[in-house]
Amino acid sequence: MITDLVALDIFRTVAQEGSVTRAAERLGRAQSGVTTRIQQLEEQLGCTLFVREGRRLALSPAGSTLLTYAEQLLALAEQARQALHPSQPQGRLRLGAMESTAAARLPQPLAQLHARWPQLVIELRTAPSAPLVEQVLAHQLDAALVAWPPPGLDDDAGLVRTPVFDEELLLALPATHAPLRRPGDLQLDTLAAFSHGCTYRRLGEDWMRQARGAPPQVLELASYPAILACVAAGRCAGVVPRAMVEQLREPPALQWVALGRCTTELVARAGHDTPALQALRAALLALAGSVGAPASLTDDDRT
Predict the structure, then answer these.
(1) What protein family does this chain belong to (predicted)?
(2) What's the pLDDT band for 122 if we cut at 50, 70, 90?
């Protein structure tokens, strides 16, 4: 029977880092101490939790099974700690967000939360919407900001959703592209986008499929700067939230075409509502109220 939450936290950190050395640095512990705790946990459970793949430690089948339960146990322990102090957001909040949301929407509310609740530690991870929802349901994240609905999600059972931001999406085209007066004027057959699971990618694919009568090729990239660079090179189109473009110090000279709107929602597991999560939700809603609806695209914005 596992009763040592510290050992589970060490095990989870090693699994995330794939390295005892990096896990020790992240936890502020001696490398030998981390190794000892993993060995003790393996002896207690009677199985091997990690296997070495080159320089990286990978989870064994037993380790993968344990990680699922470790995430749940540690999340419940954190929820219990916070429940003992319902008026004081503290402890750790694991938040996921799309890259654009993290860059354009989160700096202000996270800074406000840190100033007001210095004992609250927010761990931020970025990923496309669908993987973020999966991580929330798997207890790997406490909440996530996603573009709704994520691709491949059949229903929202087990989730509590809070609409936060109304994002205006823009189709970015090379500056040399002929003016796009109607979808049929599109001359490109490639979309630069994030990996599968990105809601904006799905919307871009749907739009280009309708415009050209065939699905586009997709060039998968890992960041908006890379996406915009490929668009500027004349190779492809891209989908970018207007709020993200406004964060750029010098936006590239591209054509920007209004594509539609998409709601960003804060999602969390049903029944998981800690003081930390309540404070985050309040900060996001306050920001959303102060921002208001995005300005309409003008003719000047299209060039």
Answers:
(1) Belongs to the LysR transcriptional regulatory family.
(2) very high
